[in-house]
Each structure stands twice: as C-alpha cells, then as structure tokens.
Amino acid sequence: MSDLRRRFEGEALLTKLIDAFPEPAFLIDDSARIIAFNAAGRAVLPSLRQGDPITRALRSPDVLDALNRVLAGGAAERALWVERVPVEYWFEVYIAPLHLDGYEPAAVATLRDMTESRRVERMRVDFVANASHELRTPLASLLGFVETLQGPAKDDAGARGKFLAIMREQAQRMARLVDDLLSLSRIEQHLHLRPDTPVDLAMLVAHIVDTLSPMAEENGLTLSVELAQNVIVPGDRDELARVIENLIENAIKYGRKDGDGGSGSIEISLALTQGDAVLTVRDHGPGIAPEHLPRLTERFYRVDAGKSRAKGGTGLGLAIVKHIVLRHRGRLAIDSRLGNGAAFRIFLPLFVGQTS
C-alpha cells in the first residue's frame, strides 16, 4: 500500500471533497486502485469497492490507456467510454494527474454523461435523413409527371387525367407528412407541460368509434367495444382523440391477415385499474415480430414500409401517440406475437379525486 494511499484513507477531508463533485468522480492511486469515490460514482459503478483495481468495474481500453499515461506522468486527458449492454450509455471521462510532494502519482477521474446528448444528436440526424427521404420520393414523382405533362403527354387527355390523379395522391401524401411533422413538433415543445383539463375518456372513445365504424366496415371489420363509464383523466381532449384515432385506424389498416377474405373484429376496451385508466385496442391480424416491438414508436420506423405507404401511413403515427402519452404522464405498452394479432394499451392517470 503506497504512502499516498495511507494518507488519503486517513483524511476525511479528501473524501468530502470527492463527494462534493456533482458528477461521478474517482481518486485512483499509482497502481490503478480506487482510493475514494463519490455517491454519483457508486451509482455508475455499483460493484466497485475502495481498494479495488479500477479494471474490476471498468473495462474500456481507451479509458484505461489514458489513465495509465496520466499515472506515468502525462498531462490530463479525455477519453470516451461507451457501453452497449444492458443499455447503451456514453461517458466522457476526464483524467487529471494529482501530484503531492513526497508521494507517488495519483489521478482524479470524472465522468460526464453524454448519453442523452448523443441520443438526441442521433435522433436529429436520423430525423433529417428520414424526413428528406420521405419527401424526396413524392417530390420526384410530381416533378416527373409535370415534365411529362409539359412534354410528350401535353395533348393526351387520357394520360393527363391519370397523371393528375397520381399527382394529387402524392401531394396528399406530402401534406399528411408535413401535418404529422408539425403535430409532433408542437407536442414536443409542450412535453414538459402536463394538461390538467378533465376529459371523459369513455365518451371520447365512444365518439371516435362511431366516427371510424364506416372505415372498419369498408375493410370487413367490426369494432367491438367495452367501456367503463365516467372515466375522467386530466388531459388535452384533442391530443387524446388523436391517440385513440391513431390506434384504432392502425388496427383497421393492419388488423387483418393477408389473404383473409372473411370478416374480423377489433376489440376496444376501457377499464379502471390501480388508479389508472387503461385503453386497449386489440386486433387479430398477422402480429408483429418481437425484434420490431422496441422500435415501433421511432419516427419513420415501419415493419413493412411498402404496405404502410400504400395505406397512407407516414411512419409518424405511433411516435405521435408515444409523445402525447408521455405528455399526459402515462405509458404505452405493446403486446404482440406473429400470427396472433397485436394489443396496444395506454395507461393514463385518473383525475385527482377519482379512484378505481
């Protein structure tokens, strides 16, 4: 055990100084063993104990190489520590030398959590790329038809009618995409503001079911409804209507197995349980493979992109649902197996004073 370590272990002041760091902080001796760490550091590396080698809990080659160089007399360094499992997180590690006269070298390592900023940056890049791609296809189609109508098909009445119908469809697709993008942006801007207006969820679900029943009948489906009454939640009525519409419309569009020519049903229920209102929309379609479930609420993520576009989907519907539910301090759960349909459940806290 080094003299420096003996001194450090006997000094409560140093421990208090490390504890004062707002970010995870570690004091490491010349043999790369932990002398002290703060509560934030314990949260990041819960298995670490005083006196343990840092390698017991942290196995990032970049960070360990930087630590070795600093302990060998080098200047302060920064390194990136990335973990992929069980969940992905990113830390920027700053390692600074600590020199005290008469004692062996030591180092102080602090961690800055970059996980959220990296996630946001990746989402921004993906969002721009996806939005550009989604708009580029209908724009290219429109430009192509315009050029054709101005040229070879200028005097062809039949071609003109056909092309104009396709152009209208592509323009409507872009309009839906822009509308969904604007809706998502507005919801994100107000994500921190929880709505508090009482909304009768049972009445709202019943109204939307009546509105969407003709669409279900056109697709050979019936809407089976079972609603608890007087289910009051704090919320924004228009946003909650958007959630219910999206879930039921998705069930109508994708709730039948390919080649199934018979009739089918979509089950919609509203119940009270443990202080929450629980809305369930269940279909009996082809189901969703397990690898897709964690990504269903990502912007522009589609299980079957071609089928989604053919049915007028923008790839933003479930992202909008997720953000609205988060704004209402609720949660979304998705349960599905291939060949056994899918169930989407929304849990929303009840209005103050109402219990299950």
Offer a few descriptive terms.
Helix Hairpins; Beta-Lactamase; 12 strands; 3 domains; 43% helix; alpha+beta; Heat Shock Protein 90; 5-stranded mixed beta sheet; 5-stranded antiparallel beta sheet; 10 helices; 356 residues
Describe the structure.
- The structure is a single chain.
- α5 (115-150) packs antiparallel against α6 and α7 (201-218) runs parallel beside α8 (237-254).
- Helix content is 43%, strand content 22%.
- It folds into 3 domains: 3-113, PAS domain (Beta-Lactamase); 116-189, Signal transduction histidine kinase, dimerisation/phosphotransfer (DHp) domain (Helix Hairpins); 193-356, Heat Shock Protein 90, CATH 3.30.565.10.
- It has 10 helices and 12 strands.
- A hairpin with a 5-residue loop joins β11 (331-336) and β12.
- The strands form 3 sheets. A 5-stranded antiparallel sheet has the order 2-1-5-4-3. It has a 5-stranded mixed sheet with strand order 7-9-10-12-11, covered by helices on one side.
- The chain has 356 residues and is an alpha+beta fold.
- The termini are far apart.
- The longest helix has 36 residues, at 115-150.
- The chain is extended and about 95 Å long.
